[in-house]
Amino acid sequence: MKKTIAMAALALAVSFGAISCKKKVSDADLQTQATTIVTSNPSASVEVKEGVAHLSGTFPDQASKDAMIKELKAVNGVKDVMDMATIAPATPPVDTTSAVDPVVQKKVQDAVKDFPSVKVEVVNGELTLTGSVSKEQARKIKQSVDALKAGKVNYNYTVK
Across 82-86, 104-108, 155-159, which has the greatest mean pLDDT? Predict the structure, then answer.
């Protein structure tokens, strides 16, 4: 009986020894593998400490971040992934339309058609009148344009 117990204890010790002799992957090797994975997103980085990958940086969306975490967890030797990364805020679409209604712009152009030296333009989203006019012409132009209720108009013409 003593021999059986001794043999069982020896077998148990050998099996524990075999498990503990399993080759451990170094953090340096894990860092190399993790860095290779993360290079697909230039605004992200990873650092491996004690077998745990610490992911940081910015991702364009949650799906790409989740995919990166999944790839890191698949690396043999990575115990866990600490997610410290963020999602980039969505950028609103750029409004390329003019702030001035084309109909209003056309009405103002019609109002100053008798003054060929005056040009009607949209500058920085505002209706702007440029050119060279006399005092009397300036007064008539202002009255005509104000009557249209065109909103903000910049009178950048030269009065002689």
Answer: 82-86
Distance CA 72, CA 46 (A): 9
With DSSP H G I counted as helix, E B as strand and the rest as coil, what are the percentages for the chain, rounded to 5?
40, 25, 35
Question: What radius of gyration, in Å, describes the C-alpha atoms of the chain?
Answer: 37
DSSP conformation class of 84: -
Sorted by where each starts, the structural domains of the chain and their CATH numbers stand as 27-87 (3.30.1340.30), 102-159 (3.30.1340.30)
The pTM of the full predicted model, rounded to 2 decimals, is: 0.47
Strands (E), the chain: 44-49, 52-59, 80-83, 86-87, 119-123, 126-133, 153-159
